[in-house]
Write a structure and sequence with these properties.
mainly alpha, 77% helix, globular
Length: 534
C-alpha cells in the first residue's frame, strides 16, 4: 500500500501504519469502537503487505467451500432425480398423460397448453441473443453518449411510475372506482416526487458518474470479450435455476406432506433449502463473472492501462510488465480455479441470509392467511431486518472480491484488507456520490424489456397466446438474469478502479488526472462537511 496522500493540509489517503484511535474518531468512528476498529485496520494492512499484487503463483483459497458447494448441489439433484418416478406415478397416472410426447408437440396439462420442446428452445436462444445484443448496445451507448445513459438511468424508473399511476387513475375514472382513482393519484404523486429527486441527483452527482462511465466504457471497448463472460454466467445461472426448480418440483410432488399446512417444520425447511439452493448457485455464477471482471480492470489499472507493449505508463505491479495484452484469460482462470473457493464461501453467507429471509416471508404469509395480525407485524419486522443484513453482505462482498481478484487471498482476508483500504482512503465519501446501481439496473431492465417483447412475439408466432405468455415469462427471467450479468461489468469496473485507487493513486494520476482530481474533491468535500457538523 502506498504512503499517505495529503491535499490542502488534509489527509485524503492515510497510511495504515500511522493510523491512531484519534484518526478514526475524526473520521466519525465512535470512541468506544475506535480501539477495536484500529486493530482490524492494522490486521488488514499487514495482510495486504504480505500479499503482493498479482502474484505469479496463487494457492487455491477456501477450497473446502468448493467441495461443500458441489456436495450440496449433487445431493439436491440426485435426490430430486430419485423422486421423479414417484412423482409421476402419483400425479401423472392418467394414460393420456403418460404417452411419449414429440419434441414438436404441445402438451396440455390441466387445460394449460405448454410449448413444445423445439418452441421452448427457440424462445430461450432468441432471448439470450437479444440479451447479448441489447447489453452490447447499452455499453456502446454508454461509451458514445455517457451523459444520455446516466440521465436515462435516473429518470426511467420515476417516469414509468408516473405512467403507471396515470393508467391506474384512468382505469378508476372509467369504471367509477374511487379507491382505484385515489391509488393512481398516490402512485403518480410519489413518482413525481421521485422524478424531482432524480433530477436533483443527476445535476449534483451526474457529471461525476458520467466521467466514471466514460473510463469504464473505454476499458470494455478494449476488452469486448468481457461481455462473453457475462453471457456465460447468465447461462450457468439459468441452467442452475432450472435444475433446482425441477429437482424441488419432483421432491414436493412425490412428498406433498413436506409442504402441508400441518407440517410447519417441513414447509419452512423446504422453503429455506430451496431459497438457499437458488441463491447460492446464482450468487456463485454472478460472482465468478464479477471476479473475472475485477481481474481485467485490476490488470488494466496496475499494468500500465494499455494493451500495447510500448505503453507510456510503467506497470505498478512488477509481475504484469508494461502493457497488458491478455487480461481476460488469466482473470477468468483465477475466478474458476484458485479463487473459486472464496467465491463459494462469500456466496454461501449471502445465500444463507436469503434463505432465512424467505422463511420469514413464508411466516408472514401464514400469519396473514390465519388472521394473526401480531404475527404478520413480527414477521414483517424480522424479514426487513434479515433483508438489510443480506443487502449489506452482498454489497460488501463485491468490494472484498476485488482483493481476491488482484491478490489471490482468501475471502476473509480479502474482507479484512477491504476494510483497511476503505477506511484509510476515505472511500465512503466517493461511494456516497455514485449513482452506480441506477445505471446497472436501467441497463438490466432495458435488456429484460427487449427480451420479453422478442420471446412473446416469437411465442405468438410459434404457438399462439398461451405460448406467447410463457415466452414473456421466459424473456423477463432470462432478460433480467442476462442483463444484470452482462452489465455487471460496469459495476465491477467502477468498484475495482476505486479499490485500486485506494491501494495506489499513482496510475490514475498519470493517465486520468481528471478522475483522480474528482476523487480528491469528493473526499475533501466530505471531510469538510463532517467537520462542520462537529
Amino acid at each position: 500500500m502506498a504512503n499517505q496522500l495529503v491535499v490542502e493540509g488534509r489527509v485524503i489517503k492515510a497510511d495504515w501504519k500511522n493510523a491512531t484511535e484519534e484518526t478514526l474518531v475524526v473520521q466519525g468512528v465512535a470512541v468506544e469502537k475506535a480501539e477495536g476498529k484500529l486493530k482490524a485496520i492494522k490486521s488488514g494492512g499487514e495482510k495486504a503487505t504480505s500479499a503482493p499484487l498479482f502474484p505469479p503463483k496463487r494457492a487455491c483459497q477456501d477450497a473446502i467451500w468448493i467441495v461443500l458447494f458441489l456436495v450440496f448441489g449433487i445431493a439436491i439433484f440426485a435426490y430430486g432425480a430419485s423422486q421423479v418416478h414417484k412423482a409421476m406415478d402419483e400425479h401423472l397416472d392418467e394414460p393420456e398423460l403418460k404417452h411419449t410426447v414429440s419434441s414438436h408437440e404441445h402438451v396440455h396439462v390441466d387445460d394449460i397448453e405448454l410449448p413444445s420442446v423445439s418452441s421452448f428452445l427457440a424462445m430461450v436462444l432468441a432471448c439470450f441473443a437479444t440479451a447479448v445484443a441489447s447489453s452490447f448496445g447499452f455499453i456502446k451507448l454508454a461509451q458514445l453518449q455517457p451523459a444520455c445513459v446516466v440521465w436515462t438511468s435516473l429518470i426511467v424508473g420515476p417516469v414509468m411510475g408516473m405512467a403507471m399511476g396515470l393508467a391506474i387513475a384512468a382505469a378508476g375514472a372509467m369504471n367509477g372506482n374511487m379507491m382505484l382513482l385515489i391509488v393512481g393519484f398516490i402512485v403518480l404523486l410519489a413518482s413525481t416526487c421521485s422524478l424531482c429527486c432524480s433530477i436533483y441527483w443527476a445535476q449534483t452527482y451526474g457529471p461525476f458518474m458520467i466521467k466514471m462511465t466514460e473510463v469504464v466504457s473505454d476499458v470494455i471497448r478494449d476488452h469486448p470479450c468481457c461481455m462473453g463472460v457475462g453471457i456465460m454466467g447468465s447461462v450457468m445461472a439459468f441452467l442452475w435455476a432450472v435444475a433446482v426448480a425441477l429437482s424441488f418440483a419432483s421432491i414436493v410432488l412425490a412428498n406433498p406432506d413436506l409442504v402441508s399446512k400441518d407440517n410447519s417444520v417441513g414447509r419452512y425447511s423446504t422453503v429455506f433449502v430451496l431459497a438457499l439452493a437458488l441463491s447460492w448457485g446464482g450468487q456463485v455464477t454472478n460472482n465468478i463473472c464479477h471476479v473475472a471482471y475485477c481481474g481485467v480492470f485490476g490488470r488494466w489499472y496496475f499494468g500500465g492501462q494499455d494493451d500495447s507493449s510500448d505503453s507510456d505508463v510503467d506497470a505498478i505491479a512488477p509481475t504484469l510488465g508494461k502493457g497488458t495484452p491478455n487480461t481476460l484469460g488469466p482473470s477468468l482462470t483465477v475466478a474458476l480455479t484458485t479463487s473459486l473457493g472464496s467465491i463459494c464461501c462469500g456466496s454461501f453467507l449471502v445465500a444463507f441470509i436469503r434463505g432465512l429471509e424467505q422463511v420469514a416471508n413464508q411466516m408472514s404469509r401464514d400469519a396473514q392467511s390465519s388472521g394473526n395480525t401480531v404475527g404478520c407485524i413480527l414477521a414483517a419486522i424480522l424479514k426487513c431486518f434479515i433483508s438489510c443484513i443480506g443487502d449489506m453482505l452482498e454489497y460488501f462482498n463485491d468490494w472484498a472480491y476485488v482483493q481476491c481478484a488482484i491478490r489471490g487471498v482468501s475471502f476473509f482476508d480479502a474482507a479484512s484488507i477491504t476494510l483497511t483500504m476503505m477506511t484509510c482512503a476515505n472511500i465512503k465519501y466517493i461511494i456516497a456520490d455514485l449513482l452506480l446501481n441506477s445505471l446497472v439496473s436501467c441497463g438490466a431492465l432495458l435488456a429484460a424489456a427487449l427480451c420479453t417483447a422478442v420471446t412473446a412475439g416469437l411465442g405468438l408466432a410459434l404457438g399462439g397466446a398461451s405460448t406467447a405468455a410463457i415466452g414473456a415469462i421466459i424473456g423477463l427471467f432470462i432478460g433480467l438474469l442476462s442483463g444484470a450479468a452482462a452489465l455487471g461489468v460496469i459495476n465491477s469496473g467502477v468498484k475495482t478502479i476505486l479499490a485500486c485507487w485506494a491501494e495506489d493513486p499513482t496510475a490514475l494520476m498519470q493517465t486520468h488526472q481528471d478522475i483522480h482530481d474528482e476523487f480528491v474533491s469528493r473526499i475533501l468535500n466530505g471531510i469538510r462537511a463532517q467537520q462542520e457538523q462537529e
